[in-house]
Design brief:
Elements (H helix, E strand, L loop, with lengths): L2 H14 L5 H19 L2 H4 L13 H4 L5 H8 L10 H13 L4 H20 L25 H9 L6 H16 L3 H5 L12 E5 L5 E5 L2 H13 L25 H4 L3 H14 L10 H12 L4 H8 L4 H4 L1 H6 L1 H10 L2
Antiparallel strand pairs: 1-2
Length: about 325
């Protein structure tokens, strides 16, 4: 089977059977495309290919006349086939990725995608390499950055409430700290998704699965204050406000153009960390980590935290026990004299 046919079939499987998000599909095709372009070594053909062009358009009207470029590539490059690819090929490619300066985590992400691809092909009875033969590179222990209770107070105190943008930023930060949402999950929220009366709502997270998250009273009040300040008809729960009120009903604006991005929210939160004088190595998940460590230090069971964070494995959640266990410090002070 052609590599391009194997990729095309895999993308259909991800979209129709696994319900993977558009973003996940783009990541998978990027990793596999990177391998195919390396193994074929025809830079003139692949250098300027946009990953988005390999996926069907999101507009239902455009998809009717769309033809995947993978079909034509499969005819042009009939070899090597997926059956001809060996473990040595994948190992050499992985080494080239590592030598290019990519982090171990990023290289492993590529290999995880390849293993998923091969696992699918094996299920289709394609005689390809056994995915279990591809081992991941050893990584350093995961570093968790979180805010202490004093830093949390300073962080929220640094946010003024006068303008609608500031009310939005405060509501966003409160929402993440209250629920433990991932930034990608927050950006997809719409107004009708959130039940402010019961202070809970369902969110579709990784793997397309639904989970219920819960708001604190402070977070609910912050969202209410923000929504009352809005006079638009847009569906997203949180939107940008750098447009004139006269343009609200124009064709220039719609739900997609006003919805906030992960990049915007990450930079917005970081700006308030700096304003509060918090100089830790912050990143997009710091408020989510702070949500978890707050629960843990206040006595919540690790299994409950796993469910709230929607971790597939308890070992992922257990990283928080190493950074919040007060008994370690107590034992050190008691016995190291």
């Amino acid at each position: 089977m052609s590599l391009f046919t194997a990729l095309s079939n895999f993308l259909i499987y991800l979209r129709l059977h696994k319900w993977r998000s558009r973003r996940t599909q783009e990541q998978y095709v990027f990793h596999i495309w990177r391998f195919i372009s390396w193994i074929i070594q025809d830079s003139s053909e692949f250098q300027w290919t946009r990953i988005e062009s390999l996926l069907p358009p999101q507009n239902k009207d455009d998809i009717k006349n769309w033809r995947s470029p993978l079909f034509d590539l499969a005819k042009k490059y009939s070899e090597p086939t997926i059956e001809q690819i060996t473990k040595e090929d994948f190992d050499a490619w992985r080494l080239s990725l590592a030598d290019s300066g990519l982090s171990v985590k990023t290289v492993n992400a590529h290999i995880i995608t390849i293993r998923s691809w091969l696992k699918y092909l094996k299920k289709q009875q394609i005689a390809c390499l056994d995915p279990t033969t591809l081992d991941l590179m050893k990584v350093e222990d995961r570093e968790v950055t979180f805010l202490t209770s004093e830093e949390i107070e300073r962080f929220f105190a640094s946010m003024p409430h006068e303008t609608i943008q500031w009310k939005r930023d405060y509501a966003i930060s409160m929402c993440i700290y209250s629920t433990g949402l991932r930034i990608s999950e927050l950006t997809t929220l719409n107004r009708n998704d959130v039940n402010l009366e019961t202070m809970e709502f369902a969110v579709r997270g990784k793997w397309g699965k639904l989970r219920v998250v819960y708001l604190t009273e402070e977070a609910r009040d912050a969202i209410q204050v923000y929504l009352v300040s809005r006079d638009d008809h847009f569906t997203p729960l949180f939107i940008r406000h750098n447009f004139a009120s006269a343009d609200i009903n124009s064709s220039l604006l719609d739900n997609d153009t006003v919805r906030l991005t992960r990049f915007f929210i990450t930079n917005m939160v970081k700006s308030y960390w700096l304003k509060a004088g918090i100089l830790k190595n912050m990143h997009a998940h710091t408020l989510r980590h702070s949500f978890a460590t707050t629960l843990l230090t206040n006595g919540a069971d690790i299994r409950i935290i796993q469910e709230l964070l929607w971790h597939a494995s308890i070992t992922t959640t257990q990283v928080y026990t190493h950074v919040t266990n007060p008994k370690l410090k107590e034992a050190h002070q008691k016995y190291h004299k």
